[in-house]
Design a protein that fits this description.
Chain A is an alpha/beta fold. Chain A contains 11 helices and 15 strands. In chain A, the strands form 3 sheets. A 7-stranded mixed beta sheet of chain A has the order 12-11-7-10-9-8-15. In chain A, strands 3-2-1-4-5-6 form a 6-stranded parallel beta sheet, with helices on both faces. Chain A has a two-stranded antiparallel sheet with strand order 13-14. Chain A is globular and about 55 Å long. Chain B is α/β, with parallel strands linked by helices and 344 residues long. Chain B folds into 2 domains: 141 residues, NAD(P)-binding Rossmann-like Domain (Rossmann fold, 3-Layer(aba) Sandwich); 175 residues, Dihydrodipicolinate Reductase, domain 2 (2-Layer Sandwich), CATH 3.30.360. Chain B contains 11 helices and 15 strands.
Chain lengths: 331, 344
């Protein structure tokens, strides 16, 4: 058995300073995976003192060195993989720097909010042959994976419509809006389920942290996506509603990612317990598998680009008050 | 009770949906069926016989002159609604009319105005407001538990298309299009739930059962309301398999999230054909609707009045226009630009 891959944790942030996806999501998944070992912690150059303090204390807890410059960390020969979770404005630079040194990269979502920047990242990854995995982890959900396989096998015929809901309960609102924060997830899942690129977007825009996207796809398929953040609900912050209904020429498939789960009721409350495998663990497992087998990841910068282009077009649609084609948004 | 002391009702139009209204009427002690009207004499006669030998006619004016007639239930093709409604108002009768009130805002207004002038009760059969599910959602909202509704999804999916190409529902000139024929149910209910004036509609349509359809058998209608709430209404008669019947609701408010999933009111049945749903017994929406209309004759507000009926038509027209334009359509524009027709 080969030695575990060395992981450099770059940044402990999210879309806003309140978020820390590294600590909440990626670190635990890497730490638990037998194929990885965490070897160092760093930050993007120019990171705030507050975020650096967060990273330093994480390094102390983990018993690994903290490098205050990204280049120093990337000079460490024991680093095979970089988990990029720096603030959004630094993601492009950090990711391309890591890829340029031949490291494999996992990037927090959204990888960037610019389709052009996604292209630039894809180009660097292609040059070095490194694996670059945007953290579109929901596509690894057991219900999504079986649904994608069923659609691909023709179980519902030719898909002509998808309805999707991705609503989160409570938690701090994203400073860039929930369209920027969450839309990538349902957009990525629809892409995985149907393989049909989006051609046009209409939205009234984001009101009170919620948006509805009306999408046109190739082959005449349409989809409607609700996305956003709602009030805090019993059971704490988390996904409140995350589901897909795929209508096809010969059938219908309704997928709810609240399943598989059990329900536990007691005298004082009620909670659901997850039965299926964890999606971030599956994401990290995919990274390991792609690196070890010398292939590209099944999720790639092109997937991040597809989502970013839709979000860019959605912003224009809200501004113009009319549908916007992706071609128009790209131009 | 003597029949002469109860409300005399005629049913105009004896097609598919008339059966539901007639069944509801039969269960009433305070109203009775005087007779039926249909342009097809054989259908009128057959229905009259089935209803115990009541009168029948092909002429509404004649039926309105029958002794004891004080009210009418109209379930004719959509494009006939406004003129029939005005004729009934002119005869001094009350009316429960199938949705939509008309196929244009001008015609809907003319019908509503005629009843206001005549001082008679007009109720529009947006029956979903009388169904258990819609009332339960409305109760949860008005109780304040959900908070202010911000995002609503209502999907009503079916797989059955109307009988064949001769069905008037397939003719957009007669039905007004699917947004007016069935879409108005959803547009009306979400407006009732949200409780704010609708501002704009963005709609898309699929011709799923056949590319030769004149109407869109699948509709996605996104409605924006004053204050920023948004509703996603999905109405389908284009799904497969043809036996599909599926409803899905959620309401996200400022204080809570209400979900009413597709299997919320059904049991699981596994038989020789595999797993399926066995719907639980629900209240009769048509009976409840009739009850509310009859109560309105004694002074209570009808569940869906002329104003609601006009607004539902405007929303349906906005949806149809949006599909053609490929752009959102302002409800105020629809209400303003439709010429006001002088009642005949």
């Amino acid at each position: 058995m080969s030695a575990p891959l060395g992981v450099l944790l770059a940044g402990f942030a999210g879309l806003g300073p309140a978020q820390d996806h590294q600590a909440e999501m990626y670190l635990p998944a890497f730490a638990d995976h037998p194929g990885f070992t965490i070897v160092a912690v760093t930050d993007a150059d120019g990171t705030t003192d507050a975020l650096r303090e967060r990273s330093r204390s994480a390094a102390v807890r983990l018993g690994v060195p903290y490098d205050d410059e990204l280049s120093k960390a990337l000079a460490r020969p024991e680093v095979d993989v970089v988990s990029v979770c720096v603030p959004l404005t630094d993601r492009m630079a950090t990711t391309t720097a890591a890829l340029a040194t031949g490291r494999h990269v996992l990037v927090d979502k959204p990888m960037t909010l610019s389709a052009q920047e996604c292209d630039a990242i894809a180009a660097v990854a292609a040059d070095t042959g490194s694996v670059c995995l945007p953290a579109h982890h929901w596509r690894f959900h057991p219900a999504i994976r079986s649904a994608a396989a069923a659609v691909a096998a023709g179980r519902v015929g030719l898909p002509w419509n998808v309805q999707a809901d991705f609503l989160v309960a409570g938690g701090p609102p994203s400073p860039l809006g929930e369209l920027a924060n969450f839309a990538v997830y349902p957009l990525d899942v629809i892409r995985v389920l149907t393989g049909l690129p989006v051609t046009q977007v209409f939205t009234y825009g984001e009101v009170d942290d919620v948006a509805v996207l009306s999408l046109s796809h190739e082959r005449g398929m349409t989809s409607t996506v609700t996305v956003g953040r709602g009030p805090a609900l019993d059971g704490g912050p988390g996904v409140a509603l995350h589901r897909y209904r795929i209508s096809g020429s010969h059938g219908l498939l309704a997928v709810d990612t609240a399943r598989p789960a059990y329900t536990l009721r007691t005298a004082t409350g009620r909670r659901n317990g997850w039965v299926g495998s964890d999606t971030v663990t599956a994401l990290v497992d995919e990274l390991h598998s792609a690196i070890r087998s010398g292939r590209q990841g099944t999720v790639a910068p092109t997937d991040a680009r597809a989502a970013a282009a839709v979000v860019e077009a959605a912003r224009l649609s809200a501004e113009f008050g009319r549908p916007v084609s992706l071609k128009e948004a790209d131009g | 009770m003597e029949q002469s002391s109860t409300l005399g009702v005629i049913v105009v139009g004896t097609g598919f949906v008339a059966d539901s209204h007639l069944a509801a009427l039969r269960s009433r002690a305070d109203a009775h069926l005087v007779g039926v009207v249909d342009v097809a004499p054989e259908r009128a006669a057959a229905t009259a016989r089935a209803q115990g030998g009541v009168r029948w006619s092909t002429d509404l004016a004649e039926a309105l002159s029958w002794p004891g007639v004080a009210a009418a239930i109209v379930c004719t093709p959509n494009d006939t609604h406004s003129a029939l409604a005005r004729q009934i108002a002119g005869a001094g009768c009350h009316l429960l009319i199938e949705k939509p009130l008309a196929t244009s805002v001008a015609d809907a207004r003319a019908a509503a105005d005629a009843f206001a002038t005549a001082g008679r009760v007009l109720a529009v059969a947006h029956t979903h407001r009388c169904y258990d599910y819609a009332r339960a959602v409305r109760r949860a909202i008005t109780s304040g538990e959900v908070g202010r509704p911000r995002l609503v999804r209502l999907s009503v999916l079916g797989g059955w298309i109307w009988p064949d190409w001769r069905g008037w529902m397939l003719d957009g000139r007669r039905s007004g299009g699917h947004a007016l024929h069935n879409g108005v149910h959803l547009l009306d209910v979400v407006t009732w739930w949200i409780g704010c004036p609708p501002v704009s509609v963005f709609a898309r349509g699929h011709k799923q059962t056949s590319s030769e359809l004149d109407i869109y058998d699948h509709l996605e209608m996104v409605v924006r309301f004053e204050g920023g709430a948004v509703a996603v209404c999905e109405m389908s008669r284009g799904h497969r398999p043809a036996t599909l019947a599926m409803r899905d609701v959620f309401v996200q408010g400022t204080a809570g999230l209400l979900t009413l999933p597709w299997d919320a009111d059904a049991s699981l049945l596994i038989d020789e054909r595999g797993p399926g749903l066995l719907p639980t017994v629900a209240s009769d929406g048509f009976a409840r609707q009739l009850d509310a209309w009859l109560a309105a004759l004694h002074g209570t507000a009808p569940p869906v009045d002329g104003h609601d009926g006009v607004l539902a038509v405007a929303l349906g027209v906005a949806a149809e226009r949006s599909i053609v334009a490929g752009a959102p359509v302002s409800v105020a524009d629809v209400l303003a630009t439709e010429p006001r027709e002088v009642p005949a």
